[in-house]
Amino acid sequence: MAKKNSSTQSDEFEYLIKTLPEGVIIVDHSGMIVFSNKKARDILNPGGGDIPFKTFNYKISVTKVTEIELHRPKQSPQVLEIRAAEIDWLDQPAYLITLVDISESKRSESAFKKSQEKIALLFEANPDCVMLTYLDGGEVIDVNDGFVKLSGYQKEEVLDRKTTDFNLWADISDREDYIQRLSTTGECIDYEVQLVTKDGWVMPVNISARVLELDEQLITLAIIRDISQYKNSERALQRANEKLSVWIDELEMRNREASLLNEMGDMLQSCLSLEEAYKVVGKYAEQLFAGQAGALYIYNQERKALLKKNDWGEVVNSSEEFEPEDCWAIRRGHAHEMIGNKNTLLCNHITQTDERDGFIQNICIPLIAQGDTLGSIYLQLQPGQDIEHWKQLGVSLAERAALDFANQRLRYKLHQQSIRDPLTGLFNRRYMEETLHREIRRAVRHGSLLSIAMIDVDHFKLFNDKFGHEIGDQVLKEMSLYLQHNLRVEDVVCRFGGEEFIVILPDASLEDTERRALQWKETIKKIHVGHYDQAMDSITISVGVATFPKHGDSVDTLLRAVDDALYAAKDAGRDSVKIAKPSKNNAAE
Fold first, then answer.
1. Would you call 26 helix, strand, or coil by DSSP?
2. In this structure, what are the phi and psi dihedrals at residue 214, rounded to the nearest 5 degrees?
3. Helices (H), 447-582
4. Within 356-468, where are the H helices?
5. Which CATH number fits the domain 126-226, given the four candidates 3.40.190.10, 3.30.1510.10, 1.10.3720.10, 3.30.450.20?
6. How far is CA 265 from CA 194, 280, 473, in A?
7. What confidence tens digit (pLDDT) does each residue in 16-71 have?
8. Each residue of 11-44: b (16+ CB within 10 Å) or e?
C-alpha cells in the first residue's frame, strides 16, 4: 500500500475532526493552536471566528482528564472537561485535545450537592424526630438527634435494625396498619399511635411519612412528633369542658328549681284554703324532686299527730300518721339526714329500708313558721344522690311552704273571726246576708227552691235574769250545737243577733221547712242547761218560715217577711211556728 503524504493526512484529520460532536483543537508543543473545529471555536471564542495560532494557556495532561474554567465578563464561569492525546501533525508532534462544555452538569452537580447539604442539615437540625427506613424490611437507614432525644436510643443502637427488633411500637398492629397505608397511598399523614422509649415509657406520637425512592429501593421518610403535652392539654381541656358542662347543667337545674319555687310561691298566694295550698306544695314537690320519693305531713292539732297530706314517687317508706316524737327533725327543729339502716338515728316513722344495700338516703325537714311547727317534709332519695343538694332544696321548699301555711292559717283565722259569732261559733249576720244573696242568685239561675227560718228563744231575758248570763250563754251554745247537728250539710245556720237565729235551707220547699221547724220546736224542749240539781224551765222557741220568691224576691223583702212571721208566732203565745204572708206582688197575682 502506498504511503499517504502529509497533505492527504491533514485533510483526512480535518474532515474527521469536523464531524466530531465535541470541540477539538490541535496544539503544537509550543502551545499554539494549529487547528480547531467549529464546536471548539464556539466554546473558546463564541461569536469571534477562527482561533488558529492563538496560544492555549492551560496545562495539558495525556494521562488524566482535567477541567478548566473560562471566565468572561458578566457571564458565569464556563467549565470545560479536557482530554489530551499525543499525535503527529504535519510530521510534527502535537496534542489532540477534546473540549466538552460541562458547565450545566457542574451547576447541576453543585446544586445537587447544596441540596444534599441542605437536606442533611434539615435532617440533623430538625427538632422533631426524623427517621429513614426501608419500606419492606423496616430496617433503619438513618435517624437524627431528635430521634435520639425522643426514644432514648443512640444512633448506633438502631442503624440497620428493624423497628420491631427494639420494640419501638407499643402495638404491633399499629405498625402493620402504618405500612399498609404507606404501601397503598405512598403516604401516611397525622397518624396517631403509641411508641415505646428505651426506658419503657409509652408515649403518644404523631407520625407523618412519605415513600421515596433511593438507589432503586423504596424507603420511608418519617417525621415523628411527641404529642404527650398536647394530649395532656387535650385531656385537661376535656376535663375542663366536662366540668363546665356539669356547671352549666347544675346552673340550669338551679334556675329551673328557682323558677319552680317562685312559681309555687305565686300559686300559694292565690290559694283560697289550706287544702289547696297542700295540693300545690305536693304538685311542685313532685316536679322539684323528680325521680325521688317523698311526702308532705301536716300537724293535726286535735289528734296531736302529723298526717300525710300527699306524697310523690313510687314507694314512700314512711307512715301515714305519726306523733311528733317519732321524727328527729321535729324534735330538733331542723333537717335530719339518714342513710338507710346504717344510721342509728333513724326516725321511727320510717317503715322500711333496703336491707340489701342499706343506703337509701332519707331526709326529714320540719315546717316551722313563727315559732310553730306546722308539719314536715319527708324525702326519700335514690342511692348515690347528692344528699346536700336535695337537703338544701328541701329546706327552701319547706321555708316557703311553712310561711304560706302560716299566712293561710292566719287569713283563715281572721276570715273566721269576720264571719263567725265568737260565742256560738255560728256564722254571723254579715255572712248570712252574703250567703242569702248568693243562694237567691243560684235559685234564680237554676229555678230551684229556697226557704229560710228565723228562730227566737222564748223569754230569753228571763234566763239571764233568773239564772245569770252564764246560763243564758250556755242556752245559746246548746241551741247552736243542736241546730248544727240537725241540719243538712248544705243548710247554713247563723246567729242573727241576741237570741235570734237564721237557717238558710237551699232546695227546701215551704212545707218541708215548716215540718222541720215544728220538729225543732219539740225536740229543743228536751235540751237541759245548767246543773241537774237546779230546776230550770224548758227551752221553747218561736219560728217564722218564709220561701223565695213567694214571700220576697230579694234579701231585704225575704228577711222582712220571715221577721213578720216570727212576730206572728210570738203574738200567738210563743212556742209556735208561723208561715210568712205572701209579698204584695205575689198577693196581687
1. strand
2. -135, 120
3. 460-467, 469-485, 510-523, 555-571
4. 387-419, 429-446, 460-467
5. 3.30.450.20
6. 59, 9, 43
7. 677 777 889 889 888 898 888 888 888 887 766 666 557 888 888 888 999 888 88
8. eebeeebeeeebbbbbbbeeeebbbbbebbbebb
The string of pLDDT tens digits covering residues 228-275 is: 888 888 888 889 898 888 888 888 888 998 999 999 999 988 888 889
Distances (CA, A) of 100 to 21, 25, 32, 58: 9, 11, 20, 15
**What whole-number distance in Å separates Cα of residue 490 and Cα of residue 438?**
13
Q: How many CA atoms lie within 13 A of 448 on its CB side?
A: 14
Sequence letter at residue 546: A
Give the C-alpha separation, 129 to 52, whole Å. Answer: 62
Positive or negative torsion for Cα 25, 27, 33, 34? negative
Hey, how many other C-beta atoms are within 10 angstroms of the C-beta on 413? 11
Grid cell in block for residue 552: 220576697
Residue 236 has phi, psi (to 5 degrees) of: -65, -40
- 6-106: which CATH number, 1.10.238.10, 3.30.450.20, 3.30.200.20, 3.40.140.10? 3.30.450.20
Is the model's pLDDT at 589 over the cut of 50? no
pLDDT value at residue 529: 75
Q: Please report, for residues 221, 385, 459, the alpha-carbon distance to residue 538 in angstroms, rounded to integers and kept in the order given.
A: 124, 70, 11
- Helix, strand and coil percent figures for the chain, each rounded to 5: 45, 30, 30
The second-level CATH assignment, the architecture, of 253-414 is: 2-Layer Sandwich (3.30)
Burial 144-154 (b: 16+ CB within 10 A, else e): bebbbebbebe
Report the predicted TM-score, pTM, of the whole model to 2 decimal places.
0.54
Where in the sequence of the chain do the CATH 3.30.450.40 domains occur? 253-414
Q: 3-class SS at 21? A: coil
